[in-house]
């Protein structure tokens, strides 16, 4: 079991264990030790989002890395996929992202990319933890000229803008489109507007005034209502909302209706099927994706492979099977032909390219998939346990599955970042499945002394 790393790096309340400056420095030291690859000088990229605590953690990580004789390349606020891209293009030994993604500003996190731009496997994260807790490298202290140095990469944002535009078809542009763009007061507040404007769109930006404490605050992909109202107010063609580190994206159509990650994957995957560019005619999604996605793909002549929740597991399956498109309902989309990780801006560009090439509105494209009603109920429990080993909980789950009669499903899983049991049901009638989900939640709560979070 890992002690620090969860499904997406180390995460928690900033300045509270494990997200302290002291731990960040130790993480930096351990990572620097692991990523040395025999070159004369070694380099690790550090980027961040716009959280106030980013300054503290950036300095601590930098100190830890430099103390092991590794140089640091500081890129400042930049989307997570931008840091992956810069790490790979600059041939650095690794990249570090200081961000808690869609979490509120008081949280923060640390996650790594290897030199090829992919997130670290579990084995490497376990190695970092082992070095920290065993204290094996405490005595390793380079001195004199062997100490690392920090450099600031002033044109990192410009480099990423150029890269993103290169993923958009050269025979198309965005002229004629009015886009409401919500950057969540996060890492993409400069990059994203520049990309869409330079490709010819009229951009109405919101969430582009970060102050260190307003990241994801009533804005961004977790709060698409603000964007929806702006689309209707301005008569825009669509809205695009990123999260704090811009690795996910949620859309609204011209009517202000939310178009989530499942529908975006359906739009992109079925279009790629028609173009003959979807490798093995297969889309990779997680177990949280709606059954409507499977139905849409089957109708179009493709198939869906499901993984555990977490974009890292989607990428692992894509690499293993040679697939080039995957993602999550939450809006993480991975286009491996272009980038190595979830990229909200890049994903938006792929959707906009389809709209422009086919001359269709987003609402029309979204008709490719019909979502089954889906209900998610969370129960906070004292400790993680296999609920199927608890007779009364197992019985109510089995009873619900029998009532669904193959026209829906029950998915029970633990959150990767919180002590929450997530109970997800799909079926034809939302009120009915909500009652059944609450019944399972109440049974689990009563059996284990938990708190139903709704």
Automatic annotation (TrEMBL):
<feature type="domain" description="Alpha-D-phosphohexomutase alpha/beta/alpha">
    <location>
        <begin position="260"/>
        <end position="366"/>
    </location>
</feature>
<dbReference type="InterPro" id="IPR005844">
    <property type="entry name" value="A-D-PHexomutase_a/b/a-I"/>
</dbReference>
<feature type="binding site">
    <location>
        <position position="243"/>
    </location>
    <ligand>
        <name>Mg(2+)</name>
    </ligand>
</feature>
<feature type="domain" description="Alpha-D-phosphohexomutase C-terminal">
    <location>
        <begin position="376"/>
        <end position="442"/>
    </location>
</feature>
<keyword id="KW-0413">Isomerase</keyword>
<feature type="modified residue" description="Phosphoserine">
    <location>
        <position position="101"/>
    </location>
</feature>
<comment type="function">
    <text>Catalyzes the conversion of glucosamine-6-phosphate to glucosamine-1-phosphate.</text>
</comment>
<dbReference type="Pfam" id="PF02879">
    <property type="entry name" value="PGM_PMM_II"/>
</dbReference>
<feature type="active site" description="Phosphoserine intermediate">
    <location>
        <position position="101"/>
    </location>
</feature>
<dbReference type="GO" id="GO:0008966">
    <property type="term" value="F:phosphoglucosamine mutase activity"/>
</dbReference>
<dbReference type="InterPro" id="IPR016066">
    <property type="entry name" value="A-D-PHexomutase_CS"/>
</dbReference>
<feature type="binding site">
    <location>
        <position position="245"/>
    </location>
    <ligand>
        <name>Mg(2+)</name>
    </ligand>
</feature>
<keyword id="KW-0460">Magnesium</keyword>
<dbReference type="InterPro" id="IPR005843">
    <property type="entry name" value="A-D-PHexomutase_C"/>
</dbReference>
<comment type="similarity">
    <text>Belongs to the phosphohexose mutase family.</text>
</comment>
<dbReference type="InterPro" id="IPR005846">
    <property type="entry name" value="A-D-PHexomutase_a/b/a-III"/>
</dbReference>
<dbReference type="Pfam" id="PF02880">
    <property type="entry name" value="PGM_PMM_III"/>
</dbReference>
<dbReference type="Pfam" id="PF00408">
    <property type="entry name" value="PGM_PMM_IV"/>
</dbReference>
<feature type="binding site">
    <location>
        <position position="247"/>
    </location>
    <ligand>
        <name>Mg(2+)</name>
    </ligand>
</feature>
<dbReference type="Pfam" id="PF02878">
    <property type="entry name" value="PGM_PMM_I"/>
</dbReference>
<protein>
    <recommendedName>
        <fullName>Phosphoglucosamine mutase</fullName>
        <ecNumber>5.4.2.10</ecNumber>
    </recommendedName>
</protein>
<feature type="domain" description="Alpha-D-phosphohexomutase alpha/beta/alpha">
    <location>
        <begin position="3"/>
        <end position="135"/>
    </location>
</feature>
<keyword id="KW-0597">Phosphoprotein</keyword>
<dbReference type="InterPro" id="IPR005845">
    <property type="entry name" value="A-D-PHexomutase_a/b/a-II"/>
</dbReference>
<dbReference type="InterPro" id="IPR006352">
    <property type="entry name" value="GlmM_bact"/>
</dbReference>
<keyword id="KW-0479">Metal-binding</keyword>
<dbReference type="InterPro" id="IPR050060">
    <property type="entry name" value="Phosphoglucosamine_mutase"/>
</dbReference>
<feature type="binding site" description="via phosphate group">
    <location>
        <position position="101"/>
    </location>
    <ligand>
        <name>Mg(2+)</name>
    </ligand>
</feature>
<feature type="domain" description="Alpha-D-phosphohexomutase alpha/beta/alpha">
    <location>
        <begin position="165"/>
        <end position="256"/>
    </location>
</feature>
